Amino acid sequence: MKGGQSLSALRARRLGVVAPGAAFVFLRSDCGVCRSEGFDARAQVEIHHKGRSVTATLFHVISDILESDEAGLSEAAWQQLGLEQGDVVTVTHAPPLASFSIVRRRVFGGRIDDEGAREVIADVVAQQYSDIHLAAFLTDCSATPLDEPEMIALTRAMVETGDRLHWNQAPIVDKHCVGGLPGNRTTPIIVSIVAAFGLTMPKTSSRGITSPAGTADVMETLAPVNLSLTAMRRVVEREGGCIVWGGSVHLAPSDDILIRVSRALDFDAQGPMVASVLSKKIAAGSTHVVIDIPVGPSVKVRSEKAAASLATSLASVAQAFGVRTRIIKTDGRQPVGRGVGPALEARDVVAVLRGEPDAPQDLRDRAVTLAGAVLELAGAVEAGKGTKTAREVLDDGRAWKKFLRIAEAQGGLREPPVAPHTRAVTASTDGLVAAIDCRKLARVAKLAGAPGAPAAGAEIHKRIGDPVTMGEPLLTLHAETPGELDYAIAFLLGEPDIFMLTTP
């Protein structure tokens, strides 16, 4: 015994349990370590191996799946410890989580200052917070919204606990959408336009967790996105822009952890959302950022009042870090483009960049508007001329050529996969499309397999205001397996209001 903690050795066993971002350990309830240390199920414990440690949630096993001298580990725990089959680990009680007292104090009316935010976020990044702790923190931030000093403190802490990029040139531009709108894949188009015009746009993007696709998922069907900081810098210095997965470059790493839990909770507290958006931009070295806020009844931001409040907070916190912003409220009543899912959205992006005649016009228009705003904010063109300039760069092929060069610099362009199974969903009556439920549509695409199955998702055939005749396709589901296709169809049959039709 040392400091009251057991140093009993256990053989590590890889169980292949996948739980992104969460570490788990499984021990037989009758093993010597459990009995001597009094480890309860769902306790937080520390696993140690050759100078490395990880905090994990403990689960008891009462079957013979494990021997009494074995510790079964999830993939996250296995990778963080750098284990090989048969390695020896020790399991001890996790030390008290001192920073959680800051969260408790806030629940009862306190506030988080700079030092408190640093302590909390440092422990989050160190994987000391279980999902229960994270859920409590995010729920408190929703029930009692963060004030502006707290948002600034949280943003600063999130930036300081990861890597930061510094560039020799200026300005460094970026664009962000607060999300919730299926198919709104403007980023690859905007990066191509802006970089082709001569500005620098090092774009880091997220993967879909509870959404059917993130920009990184979409871009990955076209080119590699798992680049190191060194590789990312090389691409940007060569081409002026990139589209890479933010998780591979360790910028504001607490953001991905908080996003994973907030999406599971199915709510987005304004304070953490502001810190989430801006910490990644500040860490990437951005000086000018355009932020897209879709507003609609079934997206994250559902009213003009909520959009105005979010816009004010984003602008104020960004200003505290010397970042200039332009915030644009856009139509969030229906999906953008035709595809919902990585490969389907990638085809929309390519169609717009190549200027194909049947490319989705709404995606093209939105991308051009936002790219124009980036050009104006950075002072690259006069006010009022951004959209026209962005459209010219797209129309004359410069954006497509730049995209090809960026893709090549990131590892080479590839063809998006095609799903082997499809099924059309048709209208049960005549009418006009009056509304589309974006949240339910996103869920259908996920049930079909997106984003884990890159070719899966939904292809939209009708938009608000379009006439529909009975038997006409409203959407087509794409899946990589028949079971996933049937699963999505079963959900659709129970949710007939995804497309709301009215009598013309």
Automatic annotation (TrEMBL):
Residues 432-499 form the Pyrimidine nucleoside phosphorylase C-terminal domain. Keywords: Glycosyltransferase, Transferase. Gene3D superfamilies: 1.20.970.50, Nucleoside phosphorylase/phosphoribosyltransferase catalytic domain, Pyrimidine nucleoside phosphorylase-like, C-terminal domain. It is an enzyme of class 2 (transferase). It catalyses: thymidine + phosphate = 2-deoxy-alpha-D-ribose 1-phosphate + thymine. SMART domains: PYNP_C. Its EC number is 2.4.2.4. It comes from the Bacteria. Belongs to the thymidine/pyrimidine-nucleoside phosphorylase family. Type 2 subfamily. This is Putative thymidine phosphorylase.
